[in-house]
Write a structure and sequence with these properties.
Radius of gyration of chain A: 58 Å
Oligomer: heterodimer
Number of strands of chain A: 31
CATH topology of the largest domain in chain B: TIM Barrel
CATH class of one domain in chain A: Alpha Beta
Number of helices of chain B: 16
Structural class of chain A: alpha/beta
Distance between the termini of chain A: 100 Å
Helix content of chain A: 10-25%
CATH architecture of one domain in chain A: 3-Layer(bba) Sandwich
CATH superfamily of the largest domain in chain B: Aldolase class I
Strand content of chain A: 15-25%
Strand content of chain B: 15-25%
CATH class of the largest domain in chain B: Alpha Beta
Number of domains of chain B: 2
Shape of chain B: elongated
Mean pLDDT of chain A: 93
Distance between the termini of chain B: 64 Å
Number of helices of chain A: 21
């Protein structure tokens, strides 16, 4: 016998939901368990309700409002005779709810257990957020017809069955955009489905599915009073199953990759394929080896000249000498210099201002390499081997440093040389003018002997005049004018006749004539020769020597130091007004008292034997940069006949002219060779050398300089690069001739530039492969 | 003895200092191999110390010479702070540090007789941005039908093209009661409200440009996002002009008119119309200045596309044939409408300026219905190359100006007829969706972005002066260079993927902002959705002030 709960009062006026629910509570307290509810849109009928003894509750409801059966508990059965609005079975917690008509929106929303049977259609968001707590049986929701859109949104568990009966007019029995956000549960569906979320699988039924549907379909149809549909709805061929993708499956990329897009769909060959060549599949790193390097190292041994070599007019490569010393090839080292100069001891070792040392990179650490001492060590070195006799005959006019250098080099090249010297012995100014204390005779003589030993025919006492010169031209394949500059320049200020000419003064000294000087001497001209004259004046007994110049003295510091150490004074700028018995008057009216005034401001060549038209306006030979006389191709001119210079310039021009003549005789076009470029100091890693204490520094044996020389621009074979290369890309190879080459292997090299950055010699250079 | 002189360049003069830890360094060479600027080099350091370790002074010398990595103190290869050295160092031994005492501007100008240039960034004070004082403050969860960003459908589309008001549409009612079209309607493209903007071939490496183009095509074809891209003033690859993907491209014409010869010649072979034409008058980051492509980037294929020899390419600051606003409408709009037989919308891009509203008002009249959009570019945008003086001292922020233009249109009842697009530092803090959304609310139909795209490609620069070397052609990321070895560093697939992913994320984020205000289409002009936490901003933009 059921209890009737009426939604209307005695006046047939609708009571509130609260009043109706209180009626149920009251009846239950009286032990009633079976209810027949005549509702009028009353909410929340059916739960959460339970009996103390666990006996079941049953509600038969007509015309309920929203959320009928909500919070329904195990043991509760609710039957709705007809349709119901939204939220049927909301949060169903175990009740069995049968809705014989249609359900509103969100039917079964959040149902987590129990069963919901719907005999009609349901609205939007049906089954949304259904869940399954594994401690209980999963919730079930059976729907005879179809659902509205957004069905089963965020479904997390449970089973839904949508039978699609009487739904032919719908494109989709699950409405549009079903199963969005569905992460769990199973939906069985019969009929067309459109607009389904892409994150679910639509599958065929398996055996367990079929068993489930066949076993439970009769129960459902029985509940909704439609058993006659059993055969139609158990034709399982039209059924499908929807499952949510697993978490892992949802993470999977659904789209094609960009590479697939590029290679499969994009403009074939790329949109720049017609203007650039580029393999897009090849992507470089920040750090790359091989052809992707940003910088490429090159071992460019000797691409640059050492400062000593490039500063030396003769171009003597001291770094090569020292490399030989370092290799223990002492003899080779000492002989090497003879390929450049026949006077290593006399000039390099004695009288040269040693421009090499002024340029030496080692000076920036402590002291320059002892190149002067090295030169002296070559005094007795034997001459290099001569080339085979060429049969050519060359005359050299003048046996000074230029002429002797030319004769020496020409001999080495295999030519026959006849040297004409006006004096009684060769040597030129080395012999005639350089004070003997600076150049001991026996040093000069031994080096002159070495030249003579080459087989050079030396004819002394030969004053060459025009006739002799003319006659000479036909007799030789080439002629070298090297007669030097021996006419002192004198400025005709008043009293100039009182002047002593410096060169003559020096020649007299070296001739042993002991020219007389007064107590006080003024030397006009503070160049190299001026300093020699000033020293000579002291040597001849002067007490006070004053050297004057119109400009900063051109003499080298060591010459000046020598002079001032003797008490000499240098004054500049001083312009001479006149000279008389009191001394020298300057243009600003001072008198520099002097008993003797010597002028040493240079000399001019005496080229009276040369056709006038071969000379320049200044009386020098008009020669090109290959020392070839412009008007006489077989005649060359060198040394002071071209332009005044140092001894080393004269030696250099002698060496150079030999090459030019060699080429000339071979019929080659003459071209001045490119001189090596001095290596920039920044390329050298001098920091690798330990600085020696300057105060304690002494040259004991110049051969020890092997350790001090930096070997600028020339590989010293230290292997610092090889050991430092982070990729071990550098290979050292010993060549057949005993030389060594380094190479950075492209396939390993990353272009870091450490080799170049740390090379003491500046031999490695980095080529940039980008801008 | 060191011989350093007072005016010798020192690291103190430069914008970045390389900090190096010789104890941690293994001389692996990575940093010096990777640095594209040559700002660091290996060298040897001498370590020499005298010491005594006995009871009485007995001097000893400890000497060693150690290879190290050192900064190059030169003007040409100065460190840009790109941080690649730090990135590649396995030992955290090297990094660049911003030098607050830099004398760079002074020494550069004093040495070269020219002001410094840079690329990529405006470097405005990043601590204050107008958009950051705005919040989406009107939340409709209870007051309006609430939308769900994930489940609802949203209409994220913006017009490019001239929108006619209903009354002006050339329709009449036919005898059968149906509408009959009896006139030309201006073309309108409904596209994604974020255009990838205005980076030329030349400014970008070919891999980068193609990656962006691919991303755009992919977004359209694989993701259904109708994103468009503007070519920039450097012409177009012929293969792209001839492809079906041309429909995603907006062709730019700027004062140099570079690249149009090839575009015109290719017209008979085009199988699609382009998405639009953008007439570039000015650029927000360097208003009043024309394009600047340094010679280092004018590679052979760019010389060919642009029809010029290798040189610094300076586009004139003005279109040579334009003398007034009227001219620009009559001549440029008409010509480019005619170029594609009035089938393709034509818009104009100007630098935000004190005069922008006048310009806009003038365009809004548009009696011939040929003005398809007004693109307003603000000061905070990026640029491939510009003089520092332009970047640092010219320009106008975009936010208030966009608002002014929108309100000017509203005052005439013509809002929406000439679509407003805005740019200039949008997405600078990484979130373009938020910036774009706020601009929509203030009246923009859409926004365009460039700098953010570089970030997506792996740009190492930032708005604090880091890298900013786009002008040098030595981009360490292969983005803004034409050096094959550097271009090769860029993975075009990866870049395109980053852009695609960012746009997909941005699309989600846009919905996340549209849902709470209850709009399922773009909230153009819905300034009621915004609140401002700065009173001055609130007053200026006419939005609610909150605190």
């Amino acid at each position: 016998m059921s209890t009737f709960i009426n939604g209307f009062d005695e006046q047939n006026k609708r009571i509130s939901t609260q009043q109706l629910l209180h009626k149920i509570y009251t009846a239950m307290e009286e032990g009633e368990t079976v209810f027949e509810v005549q509702a009028s849109g009353h909410h929340d009928i059916g739960g959460p309700l339970w009996t103390k003894d666990g006996s079941p509750l049953k509600f038969t409801v007509r015309n309920p409002g929203q959320r009928v059966g909500s919070f329904g508990m195990v043991g509760t059965e609710i039957i709705v005779e007809g349709p119901a609005p939204a939220d049927v079975g909301w949060l169903n917690a175990g009740a069995i709810l049968t809705l014989k008509g249609d359900g509103g929106d969100t039917t079964g929303h959040c149902a987590a257990s129990g069963k919901i049977y719907v005999g009609g259609r349901t609205g939007t968001r049906t089954g949304s957020l259904m869940k399954h707590d594994p401690s209980y049986e999963p919730p079930e929701m059976w729907i005879l017809k179809n659902t509205g859109s957004f069905s089963f949104e965020f479904m997390g568990g449970g089973i839904a069955v949508v039978c699609g009966y009487d739904s032919a007019q719908f494109e989709s029995v699950l409405g549009d955009r079903g199963c969005v956000g569905m992460v769990g549960g199973t939906i069985y569906v019969r009929g067309p489905v459109k607009g389904l979320s892409k994150a679910v699988w639509m599958l065929d039924l398996d055996e367990a599915d079929r068993e489930f549907l066949l076993a439970n379909m009769p129960v459902f149809l029985d509940k909704i009073d439609r058993p006659q549909l059993l055969a139609e709805l158990t034709d399982l061929s039209r059924w499908k199953k929807i499952l949510a993708m697993t978490y892992e499956e949802r993470q999977r990329q659904e789209r094609i990759s960009l590479k697939e897009f590029r290679t499969g769909k994009w403009v074939e060959g790329g949109i720049f394929g017609d203007v650039v060549t580029d393999d897009y599949d090849r992507v470089a790193n920040f750090v790359n080896a091989g052809e992707d390097r940003l910088k490429i190292p090159h071992w460019q041994n000797k691409a640059y000249g050492a400062p000593c070599q490039t500063a030396c007019p003769t171009g003597i490569p001291t770094q090569d000498r020292i490399n030989l010393l370092r290799q223990g090839k002492i003899k080779d080292a000492l002989e090497l210099v003879l390929n450049y100069s026949p006077f290593p001891a006399s000039v390099c070792g004695q009288v040269c201002p040693n421009l090499c040392k002024d340029a030496c990179s080692r000076q920036f650490l402590d002291h320059p390499v002892a190149m002067q001492e090295l030169g002296r060590l070559s005094q007795d070195a034997s001459a290099p081997a001569k080339k085979p006799d060429t049969g050519k005959k060359i005359a050299v006019i003048g046996g000074g440093p230029a002429g002797l250098s030319a004769a020496w080099q020409l001999s080495l090249l295999g030519h026959g040389v006849t040297l004409f010297e006006g004096d009684k012995e060769v040597g030129g100014k080395l012999r005639q003018a350089i004070p003997m204390e600076r150049l001991p005779r026996q040093i000069l003589d031994s080096e002159v002997e070495r030249i003579k030993g080459m087989g050079v025919e030396i004819l002394t006492g030969q004053k060459i005049d025009k006739a002799a010169f003319d006659a000479m031209q036909g007799n030789y394949d080439a002629l070298v004018i090297a007669s030097g500059a021996h006419n002192p320049v004198v400025i005709p200020f008043p009293g100039h006749e009182r002047l002593v000419k410096g060169l003559e003064f020096l020649k007299q000294i070296n001739n042993g004539e002991n020219p007389r000087v007064g107590r006080r001497v003024v030397v006009i001209g503070a160049g190299n020769a001026g300093m020699d004259v000033a020293l000579g004046a002291y040597a001849m007994g002067a007490e006070q020597v004053t050297s004057i110049d119109v400009q900063r003295p051109a003499a080298y510091q060591k010459e000046i130091d020598h002079f001032t150490a003797l008490g000499g004074q240098i004054q500049w700028p001083v312009f001479t007004e006149r000279i008389d018995g009191d001394g020298l008057y300057t243009k600003d009216g001072r008198l520099i008292e002097a008993d003797t005034v010597i002028i040493a401001i240079g000399e001019r060549p005496d080229l009276s034997y040369v056709p006038r038209e071969w000379l320049t306006d200044r009386g020098m030979v008009d020669a090109d940069d290959c020392w070839q006389v412009s008007r006489a191709p077989a005649v060359f001119a060198i040394g002071d006949t071209i332009k005044p210079g140092l001894l080393t310039h004269a030696i250099a021009s002698g060496r150079e002219v030999a090459r030019f003549i060699d080429d000339y005789l071979a019929g080659k076009q003459l071209a001045a060779p490119k001189k090596p470029v001095m290596i920039p100091q920044a390329m050298l890693s001098k920091e690798l050398f330990m600085v020696q204490n300057r105060g304690r520094f002494r040259v004991h044996d110049a051969k020890n300089e092997a350790h001090r020389c930096i070997s600028c621009g020339t590989c010293r074979d230290c292997s610092m690069c090889l050991e430092s290369c982070p990729e071990g890309a550098i290979v050292r190879t010993e060549m057949a001739d005993g030389s060594v080459e380094y190479l950075s292997e492209e396939k390993y090299c990353i272009g870091c530039g450490i080799c170049a950055g740390i090379c003491p010699c500046g031999v490695w250079a980095m080529e940039s492969a980008i801008l | 003895m060191e011989t350093v002189k007072i005016n010798d360049l020192a690291c103190n003069d430069l914008p970045w200092k390389v900090i190096y830890d010789t104890e941690r360094c293994t001389l692996c060479g990575s940093c010096v191999s990777a640095c594209t600027f040559g700002a660091i080099s290996p060298k040897v350091e001498r370590r020499r110390k005298s010491f005594s370790d006995t009871e009485t002074p007995e001097p000893k010398i400890k000497f060693s010479a150690t290879p190290v990595i050192a900064q190059q103190n030169v003007l040409k290869n100065f460190c840009r702070g790109c941080g690649v050295c730090e990135r590649v160092c396995p030992n955290k031994a090297i990094r660049s540090e911003r030098n607050p005492d830099s004398r760079f501007h002074v020494v550069y100008q004093a040495s070269t007789g020219s002001g410094p240039k840079r690329g990529g960034r405006n470097n405005l004070d990043p601590h204050y941005r107008t958009l950051d004082t705005l919040r989406v403050g009107r939340i409709s969860q209870m007051t309006d039908p609430s939308l769900d960003a994930q489940r609802h459908t949203f209409d994220c589309l913006a017009p490019l093209g001239r929108i006619l008001p209903a009354a002006k549409l050339p329709f009449t009612v036919g005898q059968d009661g149906k509408l009959v079209k009896n006139g030309h309607t201006p073309p309108v493209r409904w596209i994604y409200p974020v255009i990838i903007g205005d980076m030329s071939i030349g400014a970008l490496s070919w891999r980068m440009w193609e990656a962006v183009a691919m991303a755009v095509a992919y977004l359209n074809e694989e993701c259904g996002l109708p994103v468009r891209m503007c070519s920039g003033e450097g012409g177009m690859p012929i293969r792209l002009l001839k492809s079906r993907y041309l429909k995603y491209m907006i062709l730019q014409i700027a004062s140099g008119h570079f690249g149009w010869n090839r575009i015109i010649k290719t017209m008979p072979d085009m199988i699609e119309d382009p998405a639009g034409v953008l007439i570039k008058i000015g650029q927000g980051a360097k208003p009043g200045d024309g394009g600047l492509l340094m010679a280092a980037k004018v590679a052979p294929h760019i010389q060919a596309i642009r029809g010029v020899p290798k040189t610094d390419l300076l586009s004139p600051p003005n279109h040579q044939g334009l003398y007034s606003i009227e001219e620009s409408v009559q001549k440029m709009f008409l010509s480019f409408n005619a170029a594609f037989k009035f089938r393709v919308p034509v818009a104009i891009k100007v630098a935000a300026s004190a005069t922008s509203v006048s310009v806009f008002n003038n365009l809004v009249r548009d009696p011939y219905n040929i003005v398809g959009g007004f693109f307003l570019d603000g000061i905070d945008g990026g640029t491939g190359a510009a003089h520092d003086i332009s970047l640092d001292h010219t320009g106008h922020p975009v936010v208030s100006k966009l608002r002014d233009c929108y309100q000017a249109a509203v005052a005439q009842g013509r809002q929406g007829q000439i679509p407003l697009w805005a740019a200039g530092g949008l997405g600078k803090t990484g979130n373009l969706a938020a910036d774009a959304f706020k601009m929509f609310c203030l009246g923009a139909n859409g926004v365009f972005t460039g700098k953010l795209i570089l970030q997506l490609a792996g740009c190492l620069g930032n708005d604090h002066g880091r890298c900013n070397a786009c002008n040098t052609g030595l981009c360490p990321a292969g983005i803004t260079t034409q050096e094959p070895l550097l271009v090769r560093r860029l993975n075009p697939d990866r870049v395109a993927e980053n852009i695609v992913n960012y746009f997909l994320g941005m699309d989600q984020e846009l919905r996340k902002l549209m849902a709470p205000i209850g709009n399922s289409s773009l909230p153009v002009g819905r300034s009621d959705c915004l609140v401002a936490t700065e009173k001055s901003v609130a007053d200026r933009l006419q939005v609610q002030y909150v605190c």
